[in-house]
Design goal:
- With 250 residues, this protein is mostly beta strands.
- The protein has strands at residues 3-9, 14-22, 28-31, 39-46, 49-56, 61-65, 70-75, 83-87, 92-93, 98-99, 102-108, 127-129, 139-146, 153-158, 174-179, 183-190, 203-205, 212-217, 223-228, 231-235, 238-243, 246-249.
- A hairpin with a 5-residue loop joins strand 18 and strand 19.
- The chain is globular.
Length: 250
């Protein structure tokens, strides 16, 4: 499977939230509705002090995580004007026919509203995320996991401090897999305390594939961005991502 449309159920209907495609060279391309309204977040080292910065998309476009490990986004109108170029963990080596695991991106979603002309599930490759409650603001992160002939069992370890956890109805906490050409994409969605309002713009953060950005809600509709350094391990057919430790808070 090379391409996927990703939908989510808002309690009434399926709404498209992403489209993924994996090229022959292993590159993974991601697009989402209202791409031009995306706010991109990253951290820079300014005189040995870490500072958060934000960038705005320059029109409709795509996020491209290249097989060689370079991640960047660009607009369709400016195909040579790549922005926020970060070199990171290799996804795929076509000559050696080896694939690597890496974090792709984390996003604090704005409210889904997009219904494509081709209805949900009209294509065999369409993937629905089903929810039993009315949608509430949430964060979703994606990891690329190399495929195996027998398949991996994914063990994802994630934690929040007790004062960051939320237990109101409609909370979303869980994950699953869907397949592309060379990788399975593992997604994990969560909410934290104080995530009561949808962001005006979709907030997206990606890095080198080793570090994992995590959004944590704060009071007054603010948020904190922290980075975690996950540990990956493979024992038998169980692939574990331990993403519990917070290293840097912005």
């Amino acid at each position: 499977m090379t391409g996927r449309r990703i939908f989510i159920n808002d309690g009434k209907q399926l709404l498209q939230i992403f489209r993924f495609e994996q090229k022959d060279d292993g590159s993974i391309i991601a697009w989402w509705p209202n791409f031009s309204d995306t706010v991109w977040l990253t951290v820079v080292n300014d005189g040995n002090v870490l500072k958060g910065i934000s960038l705005k998309s320059e029109g409709d476009g795509k996020l491209n995580i290249h097989g060689c490990g370079i991640a960047t986004f660009r607009s369709h109108d400016r195909p040579k004007n790549h922005s926020l170029i970060i070199n990171g963990n290799r996804l795929f080596d076509k000559e050696k026919k080896t694939a690597g695991a890496r974090h792709l991106f984390t996003t604090f979603m704005n409210k889904p509203t997009f219904i494509p002309n081709s209805p949900a599930l009209n294509r065999k490759s369409d993937y629905p995320i089903q929810t039993n409650e009315e949608l509430s603001p949430y964060v979703i992160m994606f990891f690329a996991i190399p495929q195996s002939q027998t398949g991996f069992k994914i063990n994802f370890e994630f934690s929040l401090s007790i004062d960051e956890m939320n237990n109101i109805p409609g909370d979303m906490l869980g994950g699953n897999l869907f397949s592309l050409r060379y990788h399975d994409l593992f997604w994990f969605a969560y909410r934290t305390k104080n995530m009561t309002n949808w962001p005006k713009n979709k907030l997206v953060c990606y890095d080198d594939g080793f570090k994992v950005p995590v959004f944590v809600g704060l009071e007054d509709q603010q948020y904190r961005l922290e980075y975690r350094n996950p540990k990956y391990s493979l024992i038998g057919d169980q692939f574990t991502i331990n993403c519990s430790i917070s290293d840097t808070k912005i």
